[in-house]
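$ run holo --ligand "flavin-adenine dinucleotide" --emit tokens
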Amino acid sequence: MSKNHFDYIICGGGASGLLLAYRMCNDPYFNDQSILLIEKDAKNTNDRTWCFWELGDGDLEMMVHKTWNQAYFNADGFEMDFSLAPFQYKMIRSLDFYQFMQKTLAEFSQLTQIQERVSSIGENDVTTEVQTYHGGLIFSSIYDPKSLYQQKKYPVLLQHFVGQIIETQKPCFDPGKIEFMNFNVPQKGNTRFMYVLPLTENKALLEYTLFSENLLERKEYVDSIKAFLEKLPTGGYKILEEEEGKIPMTCYRFDLKNSPRLLHIGTAGGWTKPSTGYTFQRINEKTKALVDFIKKGEPLSRFGKRDRFWFYDMLFIDVLAKDNAQGSDLFKRMFQKNSPDLIFKFLDERSSLIQELQIMQSFNVRQFVSALWKRIF
Ligand SMILES: Cc1cc2nc3c(=O)[nH]c(=O)nc-3n(C[C@H](O)[C@H](O)[C@H](O)COP(=O)(O)OP(=O)(O)OC[C@H]3O[C@@H](n4cnc5c(N)ncnc54)[C@H](O)[C@@H]3O)c2cc1C
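-- output --
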């Protein structure tokens, strides 16, 4: 096999690219095959913090930085402290993830990792600023939102936020309990909430988050975190770290860009849950399923099917895009009328039809019927 030919090429070595490479390398099926991973960056900074809920110990447990068993929800005068059982909420710092992957993947001779910028991806080859590589199957996690914004069929909201790790003078956080969604911030016609992940009594990651169409000026996110902290007995605080994100929330058919030998993965493949923006645990699960799928030798375009959860998400995003101020009411109804474990199961797409009907009854049915009507006609 020539130096530039690989059985598999993975473009982008972030969460999905690295996890796919990790799973392939750990599967004996790929022992005699060649895998190329192309990433443009050094991946040596803590550029994001991933959180997700999970049942019991997962196979990424060794990287988990912190877990929580309790949570808090607040919307429109409805407050609730709840146990996350049977789930746990977990945090992975991306730098720990990148370092673990760099160390582990270096041991696999079937994997070649290069730091180059991909400039184009074809059916059989990937061209970087340096040269062209030929691949049997190609996976790309390089997210290009151009086609997403060129279409009108599926509204595009963003989960956008600025997060700050804050250290306070006085203890003012409960390190055992997250604030999952605290809508007790001015909504200003949008869906806005504070998300608080306490690390100790004095230290927490606070993310001022919106589910809306347009980004804000950076100052507005930062000022909102400041205003939130002013209500706490911090005794003064300093900002230790900062991160920001804009995650697409849409039912746009990213999968239509796939072909028998090219599959888009991660955010670029539409693996983000449209109604919440959660992606990391889906990447974790889907990369496992993808490795099994590759071994069957079927065309990559057949990987992953739309199901009823895609349809629920579509109606949810339609409703929220039409009236962006509805978010706090929608989540409030969901938490008021259903047990948290059912909600997390539903968001994990593991609920039964009966359970989904129960959740749907929590909402104002007219809003959803109207969204459905528009979709049909
Ligand atoms: C700050 C932040 C916090 C987040 N927190 C959570 C969370 O708590 N929970 C959750 O579920 N989801 C979260 N997400 C969403 C999602 O999980 C992450 O964005 C995740 O990293 C997506 O994985 P990915 O592989 O699709 O993209 P990425 O991890 O972004 O990987 C794509 C890779 O492609 C590389 N790349 C891009 N262009 C090129 C090119 N031309 N050539 C070569 N390489 C290229 C990039 O450098 C990058 O490494 C968060 C996102 C952000 C931005």
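-- notes --
The pocket of flavin-adenine dinucleotide is lined by residues 11-17, 38-41, 48-52, 117-118, 141-142, 243, 245, 247, 266-268, 278-280, 283 (CB under 6 Å).
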